[in-house]
Amino acid sequence: MQKTSRYLPSFVLLLSMLTAHAQKPDTRDTWFPALPTMDYNPSGGQVRVAYPSADGKPRIWVKGSPDLPYFRIETPDGVFTSPFRRLEPPFFTATQTIAFAHPQLWVTFARDTTEKATWTVAKAVWPMGREKLLEPATPFTVLAYGCFEPFKVGKDGEPLVLNGDFGERNRELREVFRAVALGEGQAARVQQASRRYRASLEPAPHVGKLNEADIRANYATWPTDYEPAPHLTMLSLPPARLVIGTGDQVYMDTGYDKKVKKHPLTGWNFNNRPKPRWRADSIAFERHVESTYRFYGAFSTLSDVFARLPTVGVWDDHEIRDGWGSHGDEYQDGNPTHLSSAEGLAGAYRAARRGYLQHQFALGPGSPGTGDTAPLHQEFQVGPVRGFAFDLRSQRNTQLQQVMGEDQMKAFEEWVNRLLANPEAHGREIMIVSSMPFFKSYKGSSRTLLNVVSFGESKDDNRDGWESGFNRNHVQRQALVKHLVRLRKADIRPLLLSGDIHEGAISEVWYSCDKSADAQVLAYEIVASGLSHASLDRRKFKDDLQFFADAQRRSQADFSVPEPLRPADQQALQPQERVSCDSTLLQPCLRISAPALNFGAIEFGTEASATLHLFLLQREGAVKDYVVQTNWGKTWFADCHLQSPKGNMGFRPSLPDFVYCLPSVRLPGTTCPDPVSKDTPGMESPQKQQHQQNEGWRPFKKKK
Fold first, then answer.
1. What's the pLDDT tens digit per position in 170-206?
2. How far is the C-alpha of 254 from the C-alpha of 151, rounded, in Å?
3. What is the predicted pLDDT for the residue at 566?
4. Which ranges of 338-493 does DSSP label H, i.e. alpha helix?
5. For 416-425, b where at least 16 C-beta lie within 10 A, e where not — what string?
6. pTM here?
7. CA distances from 138 to 42, 222, 240 (A)
8. Is the peptide bond before 668 cis (omega within 30 degrees of 0)?
9. What is d(CA 671, CA 189) in angstroms, rounded to the nearest whole number?
């Protein structure tokens, strides 16, 4: 007893030291990489073009840092110089309306306001007013990107920018993103051209001679729908005017797939469900949010774009944590409208929300509501094209089985009603932004399994989707689809932009009363998700994604909206001539789908329908541009279907209208691969296509 009492004070002291150490918050400023590499340079502030103010004046957004808390604005000729203004912690951000017209400004960040500041950094910005943004008479481009995770953890647990061969190829895609955004022409090889669009391709002056024998060999086994168009050309889209962020533009839980005991880049601990890393100190989580946005904004290939183009960005789960709203612990048991106070979840969410409001939402045209879960949807316009961007995280709640609240649903309905009240007032095409894809998801059998069996992250990923069987998300999607059909009947043409799934895809969505009735194009959807992501360098992860992509392409998952919503041409017929229609059948037709690093673009002309572009990084370093020309006048989807010798309907391979290949100008020896290569992402193998032809498959004919 006496021996035990002798050691008791030492034991108590040791226990108190361990407890104090466990509760002490991490006070480091950041764990992110500090040294420049490739297009990453973390020294200095940030300046971006914001969406114009309500009265049409240009706006800019600035972000300093704890080391650079002051900024001032000046013209390059020195005629105007503003006084220094202090940027307040914790985020060191501000928006500034520009009251005078000037094509270019300089923003200087400083450590202090003395005449000889010890450290200053200057950044250029090109403000854009409403007149330029909405100008209707010239063609323009809108870019879309999401799932930007450019960091990884090294073997010793140190944070790194994605490096090595994969990192260099990833940088190549960011360089193409910059070039497309800034209107820089890219040397490209036209690798494929659909026969029906072949006549519109006028060969440009050859950049280099092509061997005719090689051309014939390359295209000998390509499907008959395609003809060789192997000339080189300059790919140059119209000048971009707007960037759409489809969600996950930053990762508060970056590297969540890496098993590191104390992950240097995340604000969350990952066990069964992510828990805040700093439970007792919300200031530490807020500091993590600030540094995450600061270092994610340090890539010059993107900052060059954002200094010239405004951004409308929606948030998704990784701006908060993986699967936010779909785990079930986010809200109080028995009181699902109140955030959970357990383990610091509410504090972490509020810090992440403030970070999104200050760094992304402030750049757009929206006004935030009051309350922790007030919806953050946005209405916007570029050229004559109007848009609506959903907020699918603020009110995501698996306890209530909802993706969004009734207030946001009502706001969308009111927006649709305004379009229908005066459809001639603006352009016929509209954009709708949804952070999760409307019409692309796991196969039905996979969804059913994932509702009850958890495979890592797959369970909350499944609950996140519109077609989740666990949640009644599809009920809300059906309500949205009804509004899409209302718009199409008025010849308004929805273009959907989405993200989330670390994959690039373009879908053509059809609607009809049944498979025997004439169908019409309801919408086009472009999924732009994965500008940078370490997991897409792992073969196993890509194979899993490709399995789901191929499965969905083969099954094409028809689904119905329960109310009769007849195509517009049915309404003109006499009642006795109309097709009986108890529900509306929707059929998504995938034109391209691939788990590869990507970004998207929509090209708007003054008269022609929009053209969709999906830029996919290839394994050898080249970038391919898969092009789909929207066609709203088609009345049957034969180009999506094949008919077997027994008369069954099947789905033909994904066929874009054009494919351009952009060889790398930086990576030595990078060339465009054979267009029928089995490694071409998103395309069925030529052997499978030839087998279908040999077995007597033919274009599907509608029933009379």
1. 999 999 999 999 988 766 666 665 533 333 333 333 3
2. 7
3. 46
4. 345-359, 406-421, 444-452, 458-464, 473-489
5. beebeeeeee
6. 0.85
7. 37, 37, 11
8. no
9. 10
